[in-house]
Amino acid sequence: MNRRRRVFEGRAKVLYEGPEPGTLIQHFKDDAPAINGQKQEVVDGKGVLNNRICEYLYKRLSDMGIPNHFLKRLNMREQLIQEVEIIPVGVTVRNAAAGNLSKRLGIEEGTALPRSIVEFNYKSDDLDDPLVSEEHITAFGWANPQESDEMMALALRINDFLSGLFLGVGIRLIDFKIEFGRHYENEILRIILADEISPDCCRLWDVKTNNKLDKDLANNDLGELVGAYQEVARRLGILFENGQTTLKGPVLVKND
């Protein structure tokens, strides 16, 4: 792996050139950055769990017709993905108030929103990913109006599916942040889901207890991060009690 050219390194992943043109290898690290990278921890096993959770969710989304860059899992930490031109805009879908939305608007965390809200952020670590509008996106040429509309429509479809999937295993999807990229298929440009979906970029709360099962545990020093990620994997049916992984369907959690 070290002989391959490193294309990009982020807070929690490294991208290497792939075995074929137009492909990349996405490696999940154990780094657990929090508060926009201002705090850094290494948590053994986090990368393995994120790889498996992301693989499972991307396969389910593919089954639902959501275009994405995932091709296959290569090993415990790496995936083969399609190379895309990343649009420098993060898309956040919020179902309940939490994080900076609660701080900005003074809404108590966990409060259900009147409807799912889509927000855009300009991807810049130096600027702490500032909130931007569709006007900013089109004015600065980050994406054209059609691409912006496509990202919003896909984000809402993804939210509908993931909300139901997680609710079925006793998890409330509070919000999540995703990225999109441009990909050419037979000279036709498509906007597809890229990067990852994992507890690193989702707020996941237990339906009964409101216990957090996501990266906010690292943000707030609330407890064992890997234990929470393991619980998400277990409920999705990709982690047995003894820590071994599988790819069977989710195990439903009954609400008493």
Taken in chain order, the helices and strands follow as EEEHEEEEHEEHHEEEHH
Q: What's the CATH topology name of one domain?
A: D-amino Acid Aminotransferase, Chain A, domain 1
Q: Averaging pLDDT over every residue, what do you get? A: 90
- Radius of gyration in whole Å, from Cα? 18 Å
What is the SS-derived class?
Answer: alpha+beta
CATH class of one domain equals Alpha Beta
Main beta-sheet annotation: 7 strands, antiparallel
Full CATH superfamily name of one domain: ATP-grasp fold, B domain
Short recap of the structure:
The protein is an alpha+beta fold. It has a domain at 86-206: ATP-grasp fold, B domain (D-amino Acid Aminotransferase, Chain A, domain 1). It has helices spanning 46-63, 99-105, 134-139, 145-167, 216-219, 225-236, and strands spanning 6-9, 13-17, 23-28, 70-73, 78-82, 85-86, 89-96, 112-122, 131-132, 171-185, 188-194, 202-206.
Structure description:
The chain has 256 residues and is of the alpha+beta class. The protein has a domain of 121 residues: ATP-grasp fold, B domain (D-amino Acid Aminotransferase, Chain A, domain 1, 2-Layer Sandwich). The protein is 27% helix and 29% strand. The protein is built from six helices and twelve strands. Strands 6, 7, 8, 9, 10, 11 and 12 form a seven-stranded antiparallel sheet that branches. The longest helix is centred in the middle third of the chain and has 23 residues. The protein starts with 5 loop residues before the first strand and ends in a 20-residue tail after the last helix. The C terminus is likely disordered.
